[in-house]
Amino acid sequence: xxxxxxxxxxxxxxxxxGLFRALGGSGAGVEATAHGAxxxxxxxxxxxxxxxxxxxxxxxxWPPGQRDGFDTxxxxxxxxxxxxxxxxxxxxxxxxxxxxGAAHVGPVLVTPPVMAELEALIPLDPLxxxxxxxxxxxxxxxxxxxxxxxCFDTAFHHTLPPVARRFGLPLALEAAGVRRYGFHGLSxxxxxxxxxxQRPDLAHGRVIVAHLGSGASLCALADGxxxxxxxxxxxxxxxxxxxRCGSLDPGVLLYLGRQGHSFAxxxxxxxxxxxxxxxxxxxxxxxxLLASDDKxxxxxxxxxxxxxxxxIGGLVSALGGLDGLVFTAGIGEHxxxxxxxxxxxxxxxxxxxxxxxxxxxxxxxxxxxxxVEVRVMAxxxxxxxxxxxxxxxxxxxxxxxxxx
Length: 404
Hints:
By secondary structure, the chain is α/β, with parallel strands linked by helices. It has two domains: 4-161 and 167-174, 2-Layer Sandwich (Nucleotidyltransferase, domain 5); 199-381, ATPase, nucleotide binding domain (Nucleotidyltransferase, domain 5, 2-Layer Sandwich). Helices cover 39% and strands 20% of the residues. The protein has an eight-stranded mixed sheet, sandwiched between helices. It has a five-stranded mixed sheet with strand order 11-10-9-12-13, with helices on both faces. It is globular.
């Protein structure tokens, strides 16, 4: 019997999943066999699953009021996994956990003490962590003997040097954990591995990876290790994002507080009403903005690409130069106009973009004479989680998560 891994990536309104078959034993590699999502969790959940060719394997919608909470959705997902896998049993579940704090620098088997530690981190990331942890609780109740592994977006950045993770705040706050952690680490780890496989010479050099999606950040890689990144204590920091503002003068928050805005209102604005949506007043979706003739849409795109380019400039300083630039994630992989605008602002680095290759969706989009090699690479966070889950189980005898 071949072991398979279920990967879960839980958000506020959707639950993405993937099924992976282990190849050649623990840690040797994985092969995706199915993927999908449950969208609109709060209203009318819509469950869809696809094989690797895009053929529909399952399609189900729960009418409003016709479901019994998250447990019903999880039961439907597990039933699909069992039917899809057949003799190929489910060995474990791997979870994307956005924030692991300072203690978790690699994947861990989920146990009650681990869950207690993660629950304590919720104030650092109230947008993601409660949703990341909900499926773990539900699975522990539904299948207590099924091992679960937590994989952290912050873990890849544990190699940040002290100067790159330190804020200009009193030392007591740093000792209490107020520091830069960085996020999207599972994506950066996957890209670093793919670079080492496809372009080993470049992977050993100085590379900046631009993970551009609804959440967006940059990571400076030196010999495949994270040495600087744009997100900080929380995923609010750094670049302008779909609904998040990115880096902000903290005096703005003091001003808003003195003007009578509540803490809850400020938090909601920073997480849900800022970024591309807030600047444009039109949409948080870059596709809508690129298709619009409205000046507000153009202003939002300009700010988005300006901030990416200026932040890249800072990371070039941290690296001491630049050999490669990699675009990844939803916008990075599928918005050539954004890539072109960013690279135009970085012409001073000697970047020469191949416009035809860029708009044709090629992997290499810089010209032969470019001083910086520019690439587009598909990320694979779910595959990374599946690999980590197998490796974690391989460290010893699998232990069930228990009642968490």
